[in-house]
Each structure stands twice: as structure tokens, then as C-alpha cells.
Amino acid sequence: VVYVVRESATSSDYDMGGLFVYNNDTIPVDDLEPGIIITGSTGTWYRINFTFINVKWYGVKSTNSDNSEAISKALEYASKVGKEVLFPYFKDPLICIKEVKVPNNVSLIGNNTTIHCASPAIRLFNIDGSQDVKFKGFIFDGKSAAIDNNKKYDSALIYIQNSLDVKVVECVVQNAGLNTSTDDIPGRRCGIYINKSKYCTVINNTIKNNEIGVLIQAVDSDEKPEETLHATSYNIISQNIINGSTGDGIRENSINNNVGYNCIIGNVGGDRINTTADDSIVTLTLGDIATSEKY
Q1: I need a surface site. Which of 42, 140, 249, 252 has the fewest CB within 10 A?
Q2: Cα separation, 200 vs 38, whole angstroms
Q3: What angle do CA 131, 136, 137 make, to 5 degrees?
Q4: Which parts of the chain sit beneath pLDDT 70?
Q5: φ/ψ (deg, to 5) at 66
Q6: Phi, psi of 77 (to 5 degrees)
Q7: pTM for this predicted structure
Q8: For residue 154, how many C-alpha atoms fall within 13 Å in the half-sphere facing its CB?
């Protein structure tokens, strides 16, 4: 058993360190896991006694390189072993060019970690058909023009569809951009999108400068019209600051008992709350961001 302090003698990054045990075996390349199961000149080193998975182990870096694939691999392994995925603080934003699909049973924990969507994509994080997912402590930034503005589909930085029990907590979700499509019914650019999903929680976030802050609906997907796994119901939108939407702060096109309360919504181009629901419980307290009112 060896305790590794850092990646190399010249490295000042201690996030790669940990406790490893050596086994004189040879395993297939496909079974290796970066930073966790590592091949040596002979035999294999296995990381042991770790309580979380650090995305740095998978090569995530705050450079101009794309981190989408590395983050996806970390999430896939975390889903298998049931451990949280830690995104430590990076001095510069992490770049994602492709969307990141989020599997079941994964908690993504940031440390005020900024992730930029760096090219036209329909979504930054895609939670489709998953359950028990959590985001906490991130700044998700679409950089205004990054979310694809030429598609008829609704898009979002956090895109939740056909899923159960997804939580977005203590994050900033901003700058999803505008749709400039010439379609008769262009898709909307949202901070957070919830469609045909249940028991999702959006709490204590700042959601700003998007076309729509939070969009909740129950419609067939343009991309997968045959999929209808859940009615959109029992989702909670609470204690958020929603600011600077060019359209609505919250738009709800569902009639299945979604709950919103204790949010501050201001400086929006459309309605603070736009709901077509008849039986949803909408009890949001509205405030003017400019006056710094709190509830």
C-alpha cells in the first residue's frame, strides 16, 4: 500500500493524491479508470478508501480544451459505484463543447465551479430518463450565444426530461441566450427546463439573464415524441432569485400540482409567472430585484 501525495514531484496539485494498493495482475485497457485503476510497468494500482470521485482524476482542466468527455466518464463511473463527483475550485472556467449526459444516482458537487457552454449545443447538462441526480455549488454559464439559437427545440443549461428526483441547489444558472430561429414556433432558451418529470427540486439558486428562467411543462419532445414516462408533477421551485429574463421568469405549461414559493422574481421582459395551470399550487412571493427585497 502506498500513499501518493501528488501527481508528480514537480506538481503542486494535491488533488491527484490518495491511497493506492498494488496487485500483480494485468487487466484489460477497457477496465482501467483514470486516477482510480491505473496500469503500471507491471501489474495494476488500485485507489482505495476514497469517499468521492474528483473530476481531475479524469483529466478535467481549466484550459481551452473540451472537458465534456472527461466529465461524462467520471459520471458514468460514479453511477456504478455510488459515489459523489467532486468538482474542486478551478481558477478559470471549465469548458464543455458537447452536452454532458447525466446517468442515474449521481451527485455533482462544485466549489463555486464555473462551467461554460463553449459552442452551440441544445443543452449543457442533459438529464433524460434518469433519477436521483443532484447539482450543488456551480456557476453554469451559456455565455449568451452558446446555447444553439437556430433550433426549434427548447433548450437549457440544465435540461431535465423524463426523470425523477433531480435537484438543483445553490447554483447560478445564467446566460442561456436567445433563439433567433425563423421557425413559426421557435424553441425557447431556458436556464432550467423540466419536462415530463416528477419530484424535481430547484432551490436557493440565482437564475439570471436567460430567455426563460425556469420552464416547466408536459409536452411530447420534438426529438422523442414517443417517450412519455412521467406526468410533470410534484416539482418544487423555491427560494430562488430569478432576474433578467427577456421572457418569463417562470413559465408553467403543466396542470399537475407543481409548487413554487418564496422566490424573488424581477426585471423580466415577460411575466414574472406565466402559468396555464388550473390545479397547480403557485404561491410565489414576488419581489423587485432592484430594491433588494427579501422574503
Answers
A1: 42
A2: 37
A3: 160
A4: 1, 5-14, 119-122, 145-153, 178-187, 220-231, 254-256, 276-295
A5: -80, 130
A6: -70, -40
A7: 0.84
A8: 25
Taking CA atoms, 193 is separated from 57, 90, 102, 153, 201, in Å, by 30, 27, 15, 12, 12
43 phi and psi, to 5 degrees?
75, -170
Q: Cβ(59)–Cβ(27) under 8 Å?
A: no
pLDDT at 63: 81
Residue type, 62: S
The residues, any chain, with a CB within 8 Å of residue 10's CB and separated by 6 or more, are none
**CB atoms near residue 184 (< 10 Å):** 6
Looking at the DSSP bridge assignments, the partners of residue 292 are none
Burial grade of 86 (CB within 10 A; 0-12, 13-18, 19 or more): buried
Neighbours of 13 (CB within 10 A): 11
**Distant-in-sequence, close-in-space partners of 185: CB < 8 Å, separation ≥ 6:** 152
What confidence tens digit (pLDDT) does each residue in 196-227 have?
899 999 999 999 999 899 999 887 655 544 44
